[in-house]
Amino acid sequence: MTSQTAAAFLSDNAAPVHPRVWQALRDADDSDAPYDGDALSRRLDEAFGVLFQREVAALWVATGTAANCLALAATVPPHGGVVCHREAHIEVDEGGAPGFFLHGAKLLLAEGEGALLTPSAIAALVDPIRDDVHQVQPHAISITQASEYGRSYRPSELSELAAFARSRGLALHMDGARFANAAAFLRCSAAEAAGDIDTLAFGCIKNGAMGAEAVLFFDPCQADVARYRRKRAGHLQSKGRFMAAQLLAMLESDLWLANARAANAAAAEIASACADRLLHPVEANELFVRVGVSEREALRAQGFGFYDWGAEAARFVTAWNTREEDARALAAAIAAL
Amino acid sequence: MTSQTAAAFLSDNAAPVHPRVWQALRDADDSDAPYDGDALSRRLDEAFGVLFQREVAALWVATGTAANCLALAATVPPHGGVVCHREAHIEVDEGGAPGFFLHGAKLLLAEGEGALLTPSAIAALVDPIRDDVHQVQPHAISITQASEYGRSYRPSELSELAAFARSRGLALHMDGARFANAAAFLRCSAAEAAGDIDTLAFGCIKNGAMGAEAVLFFDPCQADVARYRRKRAGHLQSKGRFMAAQLLAMLESDLWLANARAANAAAAEIASACADRLLHPVEANELFVRVGVSEREALRAQGFGFYDWGAEAARFVTAWNTREEDARALAAAIAAL
Amino acid sequence: MTSQTAAAFLSDNAAPVHPRVWQALRDADDSDAPYDGDALSRRLDEAFGVLFQREVAALWVATGTAANCLALAATVPPHGGVVCHREAHIEVDEGGAPGFFLHGAKLLLAEGEGALLTPSAIAALVDPIRDDVHQVQPHAISITQASEYGRSYRPSELSELAAFARSRGLALHMDGARFANAAAFLRCSAAEAAGDIDTLAFGCIKNGAMGAEAVLFFDPCQADVARYRRKRAGHLQSKGRFMAAQLLAMLESDLWLANARAANAAAAEIASACADRLLHPVEANELFVRVGVSEREALRAQGFGFYDWGAEAARFVTAWNTREEDARALAAAIAAL
Amino acid sequence: MTSQTAAAFLSDNAAPVHPRVWQALRDADDSDAPYDGDALSRRLDEAFGVLFQREVAALWVATGTAANCLALAATVPPHGGVVCHREAHIEVDEGGAPGFFLHGAKLLLAEGEGALLTPSAIAALVDPIRDDVHQVQPHAISITQASEYGRSYRPSELSELAAFARSRGLALHMDGARFANAAAFLRCSAAEAAGDIDTLAFGCIKNGAMGAEAVLFFDPCQADVARYRRKRAGHLQSKGRFMAAQLLAMLESDLWLANARAANAAAAEIASACADRLLHPVEANELFVRVGVSEREALRAQGFGFYDWGAEAARFVTAWNTREEDARALAAAIAAL
Predict the structure, then answer these.
(1) Which domain holds residue B7?
(2) What is the pLDDT of residues C90-129, one digit of tens each?
(3) CA distances from C228 to A137, C171, C222, D1, D65 (A)
(4) Which of C193, C228, C254 is where one domain is finished?
């Protein structure tokens, strides 16, 4: 087992760039219109519109953090609040970026199994908020598809969430860092895996891109403002053609879906070997597995890389490039513990 | 003349990626440590330390705007001010990004020939500021090397500016989007072309990189805070190895200098043909040339691309890849007007 | 001449509280509904609506700075800009407060005689702003009535400014720290002295109040958001009844106008004695008078207090409580120089 | 029972102004040095220094929200976090003001009986925070004395908290909206009731003032910056003498303590009648009393005013002016339920 394999299950966030993305990057070098004035950037709205079967404005940015924050800033004023799960990435892992991009707006933390939100969990959080100026009022809900625990919202659950959001006058944002994995798991269209949301951070970096995510605004007017915010945040790259090229390569022939399927398949392979140890159903490409200290040591001694998840468990993440034999080897190793 | 040439003098900000940068990007794909934990990112401090012959902490970011703003945020509190030239890029062309990253800190605008600042011009601006809470107090000076009009500060001028800044308790930042062009023009070391500054946005994107600039903190403690700010601004890319790879490729065998020399040489070629039309001495890779409306039409009819600069002039920018024959052609065309 | 008189022409910003304001404060102590839920606060909309003959929402705040900033925040997003005069109070004397309340929005500085703006001066500033994300776009205009040099906009000038603002899609804010003085000078109604503006910081503190200004939103919907912003800025006082009491006392029997007339009359008295020395026509309660160093010394030796205005002039400000004999004394003293 | 009495136990935040404060306000009208340049404002540092037996810089502001936020901004950078109780006033009732004044810094919520924090509760919150840029790092702790449930930290508890804060490199702030009530309850000096804190929002408004609180910086250097922030937040009143006058009146002959004792005595009177119904020990001037729906109706029918506290309880607050007979009447009414 090589040293590369040793890290293979740590995360998908630093996985290699897919060959077709490399090719697209090279092909993009010819153009030289700056910023997002190039031909590739100008194709994004249409390409994502086809994928989601709705009108949409698509902007590229370099990170999922920027994508989430630019999306949220479109619907939440500085004095407002965003409902999200207590373990949402925007709350736990983005270094306070929402506070920066939203000028101090507040994250309001709801509970839910598997880092999934439900209308009732959100209602339990927002209903006690007094409708007065002393309390921060919710303006949006942010959900993560697939969730931080690798769970995927079903289309029916998304419908309920969207209806709830509408009924409360709240915008609905989706952190789709692993949207592709959710769509692949759900075996549904992108539109169905998204539901009636307002904004989506469509993740590509964990799925084969180099450094480009798409922020989608299903109300294209919001993108007009977001373009100013993107520039103001230092996220308008002058060679934007390389950003657009990555996104288009991911959409081309559904590479985004193929890559996610490969990652999910590897995760499923491992899951099948340790069903009784799983903390959460595996509905994407992450596994949270109950393994004790000595068991983790044993796995690491065999060259497997992964993060501890609290004292009694570990997180394994597969990626588009996870080799079948590595997934099988890990499955076998866990089964043999 | 191809359609590519037609745009050749519009700007350097969308120039192609240098082959050695491409190679470095490909080579970087092997590693998969996320964020800036990879081996390449960890080499940056040393590599820039060697170049500048001082201790320095170097962070990669995707744009010059982010580089300038992260640097300034290190020395200017939200209630403070930054002295810059009235035509500085941070004032004119960054979409208000300093206001965002510095939480509303204010740019204080000084005058100066060629977008260059002098101690006396800065003193004229800051001396009348009353030392009370009603007026925003200056905390830093930002200069641009080479300036927005393609002028380069001499080492002696930098010494005077640094001494002045120290005497007033002001930090000194350098926007080095075209630092390489200044250093090439000055025929001095990087250290001499920078002088005794606190922070430097070391530009690479206009000089052959794809999408990476370096922010240098000559007080490395400031970088410790800047790392949090970078994450918070959504600028911490998970595949940071590709960012570091670009920067290291630029430093390797002084590619940064070679590329800048090539761009400068092309600019000098053109300048030599129109000395009497120049609005500013050509001390980098930009030319501001007095050409009337019909003259500009004539040049465009010949396939040359450039931006108007007000009603009576045009800006021509060369880049690392400007072909000698194109520069000569433009020089001849202007001479023939 | 008493030591109190010695300071009498320094500024109106620390003048005594008018007896009727004191009485209103005492009378307000009975109620104890907190914040702005008291009976006095709830009367403000109507009281100001009567004064301005339009629907309006009125909020109390403790300072003119807060009043201006809350008003501007209602129409200018963080990525936007506010056109104001280069010597506007919000630019020069508010410690960067607009940058704070507007989350980094930018003040765009126009020129104009007497700190007055005109449509053509504003056009000269905003027309060259490229309509792209690299440049901060104007969203509002802020004018000061009376201006920082004691000049008053005529109703016809206000009409032109309002028409211009509408034609450019810009909101129009009025800093009315000395609105009463302008209205008194113009001998017109409050509505005419304001014109077709969107928001007004209606000054009372310089005119006899203790510590209350009114922010007026002629689109009452904007006040709904401003109430959240006021709380968030720590400006929602729990004993708001004392704030409202001051404002209502100022409106009662047009005390605001009577006080301003008294101040203006004192200024006119002084102006009549030094017409040839005036830097600006006296159209409110401020005088900018050309007096040399030794002349200023002579005046101070006689016990007059005032601020130097540059090297060759002085600023004298009268207030509601300036005694006729003091004004005459100063007039005589200047005449005798 | 008059209609005024009906509201008597709703809150202390809108209580009348104490006669000695009124007198001080009137006496302050003579001076006219603006902002905080008046003689009264200049006496504050010394007056609070005597009270707390340490060097201190004291600034007046109009609200407790502004006081807390200016204090916190002195020790917490925009990318940092503040540990506070989940039910702390700054989290629950200040309309997101900390997010505004601290430019998006985050409140980190700890648990604790009676809204009191302990070192172990704080450790449980902050220990799991990874020391990396992806997570917001704590920079300060904010405690409330007396707490939001009317509990008072003992000097020994404060020592432990201060030692803990020091050991973790965290600043320690105290929200003292009801600091006087805590000191009165503890029967200790102001210094002992505060402990070794860095900053204190010393509340006066709930205790007899009209609209002035003191922010105390035990490191006076922090006040130098806070003065800029105060101005920038629109909180520098031009007639600051009226602010200082209130604070000095509160300190004079320990009015602050006498008023708090009166409020506490009234609360104790009521508490003694319903010890078995108390949700929290009464250690200041607030009572949280278990009373059902019909019981609350009965009390209200008798003219008592108070807020519901969830479905099964009510909050009663006494103030400096609560009449003994009213307290006894309420005690009797509850006892008779």
Answers:
(1) 3-14+257-335
(2) 999 999 999 999 999 999 999 999 999 999 999 999 999 9
(3) 9, 20, 10, 36, 13
(4) C254
CB contact under 8 A, B104 and C99: yes
Whether C52 and C8 map to the same domain: the answer is: no
Contacts of D114 (CB under 8 A, 6+ apart): D147, D149, D150, D151, D280, D281
Q: Which two tokens stand for residue C164?
A: 């211009």
B94–C105 C-beta distance less than 8 A: no
For chain B, residues with pLDDT lower than 70 are 1-7
pLDDT tens figures, C311-325: 999 999 999 999 999
Partner residue opposite A104 with nearest CB, options D92, D93, D100? D100
Token reading at D193:
């009731």
Indicate yes or no: CB of A26 within 8 angstroms of CB of B29: no
Q: Give the closest of A133, A137, A232 to C79, CB-based.
A: A232
Gyration radius (Cα) of chain A, Å: 20
**What is the domain-level CATH number for residue B268?**
3.90.1150.10
What residues in B contact A29, CB-CB < 8 Å? 16-17
CB atoms within 10 A of CB D180: 33
Beta bridge partners of residue B108, listed in sequence order? B83
Beta bridge partners of A84: A109
Contact across the interface for B79 and D137, Cβ inside 8 Å = no
Count other C-beta atoms under 10 Å from residue C295's C-beta.
Answer: 17
Q: What is the ipTM metric for this complex?
A: 0.97
Of A14, A66, A234, which has the smallest distance from its Cβ to B69's Cβ? A234
Q: How many angstroms separate the CA atoms of B108 and D219, rounded? A: 30
Ranges in chain D, pLDDT < 50: 1-5
Residues B152 and B238 grouped into a single domain: yes
Record: contact D228-B133, CB cut-off 8 A: yes
Q: Quote the number of domains for chain D.
A: 2
Residue of A nearest to C231 (CA): A133
B173 and B50 share one domain: yes
Q: Is A69 in Cβ contact with B7 (below 8 Å)?
A: no
H/E stretch holding B110 reads: strand B106-110
Residue D77: both structure tokens together: 């950078």
B46-91 confidence digits (pLDDT tens): 999 999 999 999 999 999 999 999 999 999 999 999 999 999 999 9
| Of residues B92, B103, B136, nearest to C104 (C-beta) | B103
Q: Do A29 and A94 share a domain, yes or no?
A: yes
CB contacts, 8 Å: A232 with chain C: 78-79, 133
Residues of D in contact with A89 (CB under 8 A): none
- Distance of residue D159 Cα from the nearest chain A Cα, in angstroms: 31
Q: Quick check: B210 and A242 CB within 8 A?
A: yes
pLDDT at C31: 72
CATH of the domain at D98: 3.40.640.10
Contacting residues for B75 by C-beta, under 8 A, at least 6 apart:
B139, B140, B171, B173, B198, B199, B222
Query: Residues of C with CB below 8 A from D34's CB?
Result: 10-11, 13-14
Note whether B225 contacts D137, CB cutoff 8 Å: no
Domain boundary among D224, D254, D284: D254
